[in-house]
Amino acid sequence: MFSHLNEEGRGRMVDIGGKKDTERYAKAHGYVFMSAKILKAVEKGEIKKGDVLAVAQIAGIMAAKRTPYEIPLCHPLMITHADIKFRIIKEYPCIEIISEVKTTGKTGAEMEALNAVSTAALTIYDMCKGLEKGIVIGDISLLEKSGGKSGLWKPEFVKEGKIINIAVGSKKGEEKKPVEKCEIIENFGLKGDAHAGGSKKQVSIFAVESLKEVPENKMIEVMRGGYTENLTIVGIPLYYLVPENVLRVGTVEIEIESVGKESFVNGGRPYIVSRKGIFGHVKKTGIAKVGDTIGVIN
């Protein structure tokens, strides 16, 4: 039987009186997607209703404190800390909202953290809806919780996908050749690759999802082009493949440095790689194989 149902199948508040008080922590996040024009206006404080992020931050903190008034069977908490942070993602215009909530008590702060993100997102929508009705809120999820009987919970990956190709090139300016596996070396890159070492762009990655950015009249030449990137991956939303995020495959960790190059190429596969290619530096050494799971870590 579900703990929130009584013997008659009706909702009830679970009795937590016998639980021990422990330090509790929860972290959640979510995204608000909008046009680049509106995102720029939010960042510069040019929305007529006021400072969007400042208002959304306060709204999120207030929502964390009022969670039991909105979620019927949620226990009231004595919150000791609540905060909201924002990350502007220009590469795929959106705002990431990150909440953190702490308390010392008999039950966790997961709902408070999630409610904070949800309300902050709705506040952003409310303040911008006069300029853009098509704003989308999504991907709200728990990132971490600790405390209580179950202790620490933290997913291995925030989002995960697969490596579908690995390619290494011995000379710059030439197409890379597919390999089944490769050693990826800390502060260097793929063993045997001409682009490894010497910069923060030690590894090049291409997400298959980026193909939707290719115009119809360019698609054939892009698909016919040979590999110019080291890793081809599929399954991770593009807005997770942005600077500061870290990818892990096996023991390998790659921190994303940039998306796209300084100058664009207008032909072949480099057309899309120069615009949406992902470049990063290697933080930890290991072996990567075609078919391996690759994911964004928290």
Keywords, separated by commas or semicolons:
Alpha-Beta Plaits, M1 Pyruvate Kinase, Domain 3, 7-stranded mixed β-barrel, 4-stranded antiparallel beta sheet, 6 helices, 35% strand, globular
Describe this structure in words.
With 298 residues, the protein is of the alpha+beta class. Helix content is 20%, strand content 35%. It has six helices and 15 strands. The chain has a seven-stranded mixed β-barrel. The chain has a four-stranded antiparallel beta sheet with strand order 2-3-1-4. Helix 2 (52-65) runs antiparallel to helix 4 (110-128). The two termini are 33 Å apart.
Q: Please, how many helices?
A: 6
CATH superfamily of the largest domain: PK beta-barrel domain-like
Largest sheet: 7 strands, mixed, barrel
Radius of gyration: 23 Å
What structural category characterises the helix and strand content?
alpha+beta
Question: How many distinct domains?
Answer: 2
Tell me the span between the first and last alpha carbons: 33 Å
- What's the helix-strand series? EHHHEEHEEEEEEHEEEHEEE
The residue ranges in which pLDDT falls below 50 over 5 or more consecutive positions are: none
The CATH architecture classification of the largest domain is Beta Barrel
**Overall CATH class of the largest domain:** Mainly Beta
Average pLDDT, rounded to a whole number, is 93
